[in-house]
Amino acid sequence: MPDSLIQRRQTAMRACDRILSGVRPLTMREHVAALETAADLDGLPDFYGGGPVTVLEKRVAALLGTQDAVLFPTGTMAQQVALRYGAERLGVPAAALHPLGHQEVHERHAYAELTGLRGIRSTTAPRNPTAAEIVSLAEPVSTVVIELPLRDAGFVLPTWRELVEATKAARGIGARVHFDGARIWESAPYLGRSIREIAALADSVYVSFYKTLGGMSGAVLAGTADLTEYARTWRHRYGGHLFQQWPVALSALAGLDRELPRIPEYVAHARVIAGALATLPGARVHPEPPHTHQFRFWLPYPAAVLNEAMLTMAEKEGVWFAGGWSDADVPGYAMTEVTAAGPALEWTAAEVGAIGVRLLDLLNQETQRT
Q1: How buried is residue 261: exposed, middle or buried, by Cβ count under 10 Å (0-12/13-18/19+)?
Q2: CA-CA distances (angstroms) from residue 36 to 31, 46, 188, 197, 300?
Q3: Which of 175, 181, 160, 156 is nearest to 102 (CA)?
């Protein structure tokens, strides 16, 4: 996306009185001001670890119920280390990955290019692999990756029983289990278990701080003491052992305080929003109802037209609907991802339906002009 369009979207969203999908972008000054509410800024910063970084690592380890946790600058780096660890410990240079998983779609195959591992498809279905599919893998793997939720299939989750069976099957074939838990925080309501119970099914878990929690950046890889000792070594080798990360650590801690308790409410309200959007003419929602506070939404218009109409409504009427439309595989449709966060809680189902109708009116006017 061109920088000019990104800037236009951010400017329009910041000026809106009401936001249906997502959260209002913060300025750098607002980010810094938020840190002042998270901790005493008169304390000393971290020095290659320690300080607020250690506080964050210990807090996440306690939340997940793991022996330890390691802060990484990016999830891409953390996930490479998790897969490398499994391959070296088990002597099998292959991992079971979903073709829609983050490592395949959004990390430029870093696990293969930098670590030399091979990716074995765990399934081609738009969901995480089942126990039967894991048992039927064509060759041995050191790690089975399960993404909770599977974002590029529509933020979909297995049932608790399916997840338990899949992790048992992975260990039955001699593999480790790694949870790509960038959004694991919002998976708990659908699975009906605590974060600790979910994480206990895996040998390693990666979590993100800027997704959902609203942190500046950063991720944690959590697991056994042996894993985290290995992870600290490889974090340094990959260039991720940074001199100071206190802004990242403090913003993550603030997100855990502020957003984590509200996630069940977000997930519940996403179902209200999705139900209202699904009633619009030609609209499609997946999954229905949503498994988390995010879901996919389709309308029968070109993406360029939708993006322009949505921005026009934001700039002229002060209402943000949902941005980032892209042309879908279904001819004539475009798709976006809807995120029900704090601002969405202000919307009733009737208001969602009304603003959807207003957007359709703008779209029809634009279509008639062209």
Answers
A1: exposed
A2: 9, 16, 30, 33, 45
A3: 181
d(CA 309, CA 299): 13
Contact of 73 with 241, CB cutoff 8 Å: no
Rounded to an integer, what distance in angstroms lies between the CA atom of residue 290 and that of residue 276?
Answer: 12
Could you say which DSSP state residue 175 is in?
Answer: -
Length of the chain (residues): 370
The DSSP letter of residue 285 is E
Residues of the chain with pLDDT under 70: 1, 366-370
Taking Cα atoms as reference points, which of 303, 217, 249 lies closest to residue 44?
Answer: 249
Residue 129, preceding peptide bond in cis (omega within 30° of 0): no
Measured CA to CA, the distance from residue 166 to residue 162 in angstroms comes to 6
Give pLDDT tens digits for 208-249: 999 999 999 999 999 999 999 999 999 999 999 999 999 999
Residue range 68-90, pLDDT digits in tens: 999 999 999 999 999 999 999 99
Torsion of CA 31, 37, 42, 47, to 10 degrees: -60
User: In the CATH scheme, what is the code of domain 46-243?
Assistant: 3.40.640.10
Strand partners, 206: 180, 221
Report CA torsion sign: 275, 277, 282, 287. negative
Quote the CA–CA distance of 86 and 157 in Å, as a whole number.
24
110: Cβ–Cβ under 8 A, 6 or more apart, which residues? 76, 79, 80, 103
240 closest CA partner among 92, 78, 1, 354? 78
- Residue 262 · residue 186 · CB < 8 Å: no
Residue 223 structure tokens: 């697991």
CB within 8 Å of 227: residues ≥ 6 apart: 68, 82, 85, 203, 204, 221
Give, in words, the CATH class of 3-25+261-369.
alpha beta
Answer yes or no: are the C-beta atoms of 353 and 363 closer than 8 Å. no
Peptide bond into 300 cis (omega under 30): no
> Against a cut of 0.90, is the pTM above it?
yes
The pair of structure tokens assigned to 181 is 């838990």
Domain locations in the chain as residue ranges: 3-25+261-369, 46-243
